[in-house]
Amino acid sequence: KVPNTLPRLIPVARNNDDTRRTYRFIWLEDLIAHNLSRLFPGYEIRQTAGFRITRNADLEIEADEASDLLEAIEATVRRRRFGFVVRLTVAKTMSTPIRELLIQNLDIAEEGMFESSSPLGLSGLMSLMSLDRPDLKDPPYMPVIHPRFRQIDTRQEIFDVIKQGDVLLHHPYDSFIPVVDFLRAAARDPQVIAIKQTLYRAGKNSPVVDALMEARENGKQVSALVELKARFDEESNIGWAKTLEREGVHVIYGFMSLKTHSKICLVVRREADNIRRYVHLSTGNYNAITANIYTDLGLFTSKPEFGADASDLFNLLTGYSKKTDYKKFLVAPITLRSRFAELIEREINWAKKGQEAKLIFKMNALIDPAFIKQLYRASQAGVKTDLFVRGVCGLRPGIPNLSDNINVVSLVGRFLEHTRIYYFHNGGKPDIYLGSADLMPRNLDRRIETLFPIEDPELKQQLIEILNIVAADEANARILRADGSYVRVASSTEDTGRFNSQEEFMNRAKNR
Length: 512
Prior knowledge:
It is a single chain. Helix content is 30%, strand content 23%. The chain is of the alpha/beta class. It folds into 3 domains: 9-136, no CATH class; 147-323, 2-Layer Sandwich (Endonuclease, Chain A); 332-511, Endonuclease Chain A (Endonuclease, Chain A, 2-Layer Sandwich), CATH 3.30.870.10. It is globular, with a radius of gyration of 26 Å.
């Protein structure tokens, strides 16, 4: 096995007369292959070829066997490296007898073996980012503090800003710092009574977790739902859960059968007139690192209905509520699927009346069969539908008499497109929802997810502008065709360069 403690790319010394900024590397496995006689002295080396195995990474936890979810997941994570093999990738140079030997010993079907003439596994190429070659990289971008938060001097002022009106942050163009400052202010403000927080992928050295621990040290009531089943973040989240528990935070692990994927923070504060609840909701994780490279939207609000829904949601997560109706939120697996279907059906009815009917959805994936069928029905009724689906899409657009009113575009650019925006035209009085859920069975039926409406007219207009800018993208966009292939968007300004929505958002944030 090639050791994962060593760099995958080994630098080769340059000639002294090489004044250019050139770098040369060899793959670690090639270095090993050329020195096998040293590793196995006295043996005849007849053949060398690399192979790579992929193991099943799903966590299978039997509900009736797991009295302690944390212990059960710890044990399951330890067993992951022994999971059954689901794929074998071999070098093209590997002989048939060796291939057959691997198939037999790894207990994998022949169709599970793939041949590659490229290096096996390319994650090691990430190390090239550390090279001093700015000419090969995007210009650095520093996220900008949202104007509403630029003049804050005291802890109380951040709550005053939110109380004056909802604030929408568009990451990474808007900085994630106000989110961290919000939690730090809550931790230090003597008027704050309680903080409740969901954590799905917090990352390393998390300032969010630090703020929660500081709040507990200052005597606040702090609850954190740490989702232990976040794939490939299980070990990190187990560590955070134990750390938070040691600091006295009330840690909830969620449900055995449901992942908690909602992104929400609730701060309860004592004020002169009453108890006020401040809420932050997001399409992305509370992770200060990925907030600089993922596009997401986050909302600050102190609206009573949002605060009430947030309280009810946390009561559900802690097992103290079986509430099935919410004032504003759409919560999976309770209300989200049914209400979302009603909203699409409403557009179909507008179209049947001869009125303008439009749907604009931006998400990461679309594979839910029921919603795909409903979107086909909407297209047949005359509903104009624009879908921005970065990843897998099970819907085929542009099929006559089925989906000819549907356009599907995938955006892949410098930043990972992660926002979920759902626009329903509603006869010219649009409803717009943001949230954590894609249109996938796992999001709708097997996770705790939250979609929330944007009600402020200015923020609605901001989201409509975001969707319009995304729709105009020519640099990062690929159009899905009826045959399932993707084609690059044609440029309307080839002489001046393709319009790049992400660059436009960066420029707007810097000039705001």
